[in-house]
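Page 37, top half.
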Amino acid sequence: MKIILKRSKNSDIIINSAVVLLQGAFDGIDRDSLIGALTSYSNNAKQKKEELLTINQTAERIGVTTMTIQRYLKAGLLPKIKIGSRLVRIPKSAVDEMLNIEEKNDFKVDIDSIIKDN
């Protein structure tokens, strides 16, 4: 959600009305603190936006086949986000974390044994 606060007669009315409504729930709220909170929320939302990768993109990034990525997902080695009943996306941060662990040689998981157990 992107919040754009432009000064106009209507925006002043809306902000002032919101302050009046919120004063019952929040002591000491005023116009400036409400605008500050909205701006802070907007900035945090921008920072938290996660880039998602397809299975193909993930396989290419890690340097394995798409079948290996499917096995990683089934074994729980990578988190997945299901979009609808068929679409799957993988958080880029999880892929980058896996790559960082591999670079440090801490990634000592016997994939075959995990996959056979599932």
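Page 37, bottom half:
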Amino acid sequence: MPLLHHALFDALLPALFALAVLGLTWRRREHAPKSSEPARCIGAWAFGLALIAAQASIYGELVPPWAARQLASKDWLPAFLLAAAGLATLALVPRVRDALPRSGAALVVAGFVVASTRAHWGTDGVLWATIAVFGCAMLTWSTLELASERLRGPSPSLVLALAVAANAGAAYASGATTLARLGAALATLLAATAVIAWRRRVFTLAGGPAAAITLTLTSIWIGSWVFGALPTAALVCSVAALAVPCYAGLGPFSAATPRRRELARYALVALIGGTALYLAWPRGAP
């Protein structure tokens, strides 16, 4: 049963691994700020290793950066997930943390985008597409950091899981099936973190987990848009589905009750994510 095999090894087992590690890490933490730095570092490793395991299941291989062939974004992803986790570990040292704000996540994301596309910069339009993807990645990462620091409880993880699922659906509709499976694995992982956020309201995705999420989404965008058939309008909606709901507590929603703001986030991600899926779906398809 291929579908059951994919669901088990692509998503469920990596999510359960991350859930166990994060659950043990956060179970005794009742206060967030600086005391949670080690937990955020462990979160980077939990997310990184879970996503690497999912990728190994999906593609059946892990290609090292020194492989004697041209590497695609999917091939670079494991190395940069490990780099993000490694920098998060080094950032536990105060001097390194001062020199690398936010554990150097912006540098890791920039390096990933460059490594994934530089071999094709001579191709018409790829360089500009690279700049556009980098902008989308920075917007997503900064929004995730802001929302993770400001919002607590299981709802942010569930809203983000829904937005990532919309990105995976858009990738699938554009023909990027394996990238869609990677997105589904990330969405399952995020849904699992909602259990921890429900038990420990100090739990946060800020730091290493936010970088790992951004790297995985960026890999999906590069494969499905820069080198795939995902329409530009669908990409814009896919990114907006991640960013816009984080601001549901501002503007006209600022005076709303917390419950209504949460409902607004779900409604926004469903509306924008559904639009992305509609735009990505090939015309004439059933």
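Margin note: The chain has one domain: 2-280.
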